[in-house]
Design goal:
single chain, mainly alpha
């Protein structure tokens, strides 16, 4: 005789079915009733992936439907204070989708809620990369400002993540935008002399992607 699913398992499965059928609010309310943390994460991740896959299927991230999808995903994430319940690989694609839709603030807010400093700092870099690609120096400046105030910006080996992100941004402006002068301005802000020189030398060369 097969084992009956637990109450939390039944709620998890119901939440997933509701999400797949487009009943996102119902899925959220169901998931909020789950007490087992593993089951909670399973349900929330499936809800978020369902929402993201619908967003990804849209061609124009600035369309009304895409903006509504992004807003709905942010609403789902806002329900969860513990990032272990919601962090997943979809975040890498969600952040540029928000930036490209004109919601850099929303992307930064999501990253700021990440408890793991490595992920948090890497994703600040992802946002700044995307802003540079979009030729948005004002947005880059805002993201770098937030990153500069992060208490964990120095890693265990003393490497300053701000320097690494400045290098990434410099490469985007040089190799994607073709704006060498602006790229040099970002590279010149790198604090560590060897890294600064390395990036300045790199951006003086043609993009490796063009070879």
């Amino acid at each position: 005789m097969s084992e009956q699913p637990s109450h939390d398992e039944a709620l998890r499965d119901l939440a997933i079915r509701q999400a797949r059928s487009g009943q996102i609010e119902g899925a959220r309310q169901t998931a909020l009733q789950i007490t087992d943390k593993k089951m909670q994460r399973w349900a929330w991740i499936r809800i978020l992936y369902t929402q993201f896959l619908r967003l990804e299927a849209l061609e124009d991230v600035r369309s009304k439907e895409a903006r509504e999808n992004l807003r709905a995903m942010k609403e789902t994430l806002a329900l969860l204070s513990d990032d272990s319940l919601w962090y997943g690989s979809y975040v890498t694609n969600l952040l540029p989708a928000l930036v490209n839709a004109g919601d850099s603030v929303g992307a930064i807010e999501i990253v700021g809620r990440m408890n793991n400093p490595v992920y948090r700092l890497i994703h600040y870099g992802d946002i700044a990369d995307c802003q540079a690609r979009n030729n948005d120096p004002e947005g880059v400046g805002q993201t770098l400002s937030v990153l500069s105030k992060d208490p964990d910006r120095l890693d265990a080996e003393g490497i300053d993540m701000l320097d690494l992100v400045l290098g990434r941004v410099a490469k985007e402006f040089a190799w994607v935008r073709g704006d060498i002068e602006r790229a040099k301005q970002y590279a010149a802000r790198i604090g560590e002399a060897i890294e600064r020189e390395r990036i300045l030398n790199q951006i003086a060369e043609p993009s490796p992607w063009s070879k």
